[in-house]
Description:
This protein is mainly alpha-helical.
Amino acid sequence: MVRNPKQTASETDGVSYRRARTWEIALSQMNNGSAMIFYVLVGLMSYLQNSGYGIAVAVAGLILTVTRVFDGLIDPLLALVIDRVTFSFGKLRFFMLLGWLIRSIAILMLFVWGAGSGLGAGYFIAVYVVYIIGSSMNDIAGQMSGPVLTNDPRQRPTVQVWATVYAYFVPAAFTILSTLVFLPRHGNQFTVGMLSETAITYVACSLVFQILACVGVSRIDKPENFAHLTDARNKVDVSLRDMWNLLTKNGSFLRYLISGASDKLAQVVKSQAVIGTLMWGILLGNMQLGSLLGLIAILPGIVFAIFGARYTGKYGSKAATVTWTWICVALAAVLTVFCLLVDMRSILTSLPLTIGFFLVYLLLNGASMVVTVASGTMRADVIDYELDRSGKYLPATVTATYNIVDQIISSLGAALALGAVALIGFSTVMPQPTDSPSTPILMMSLLLFFGLPILGWVCTLIAMRGYKLTRTEMIDVQKRVAERKESLQSQEPVGVTG
């Protein structure tokens, strides 16, 4: 019996999809890997501020918070520039490399050339602002690569899988490198010398990632892949009005934004060190457990991401988001009830309780990974829908508008976490792993660790009720876009005949 070959998405949907090779997707998302290397360096910034520039710890935290707000403001301006310009040699590589160069020079100025020279806070702030500009430029261009590489609904989720792989493994690998290699060579002290050596090595490694990312996007980094659906004879301007229209007229983007923002707030609060101290150190009695569990969860998380990509490709980003968000709500509710019914200090002393707790926790982590993959695909869908709706291709503007909210939420997360622990008595001192568990600590920990994520997922489910970019609708969107492109290409340019 002869088995019929499996139909491609293009054959099934009747759309000539733009597809990327697997190696192109893998290499293109190395820009995310490069960004993660700098993310690890920024994690060392507080040590640099204190030992390299003599900035007090409290002032250092204030500087990083204020500059985060600047980061949110600079994103839309850079996005408008990126969406407006066109280069014959491709703009993804130009802005990715220019952003990398700016952020790398700024890092070297901070960690190597300026540290320990008595330049003070003014120098640090000025150079750090330059770093933010380069970082934003590189990140926006890198995040644009996925929607440009492919519009095949079966392939698009794969982009998010590779981005997730780098987001997990690169920070873990480079954190281990600094902790096990550079730190012992400097007496286990975060000295200026240790930080300088780390920065030089990290910048060099990030360059390798960046070059490979540019190779990955080289085939599709052409002007025609950034074209608007307008008369080719008329110049199209991208302005702040387009960003406003995106928020007020693109209902699907607004619902995607609400979904992402609510989930992000819960994620940021949950990841705060003080919340980890309450949950792992005080209630469970093992502070190292949280870090260990994070490492253990990497492999099953990647497996779930791969499964999530297949599920999203088959059913669409909305269906995947709704289905797996309900699963997340159910698993988080089970863990909440579990922690209320048992003495949490007994979990690690009883094998059945330990297995039950960690099994459900890892399943929750995996389910949330599927939602993350679907969310990445949803952004690409929104970009194509905006092209169909307004005739303008605005991948940078969509990305930057989302990033503004992301930055605001991230800055609120720490304040919310600290305010919450202050309500249970930690107003003058921070919680320590050696503190004794109590009912207020238990209730606040469960509220922040499971309750807030449940609230975020409920917001997602409400937002998705009016989200119209289903699998079927996106097929129609791609058909309309393809028809309009063909119509524009068939127009004869106006010229003088002789």
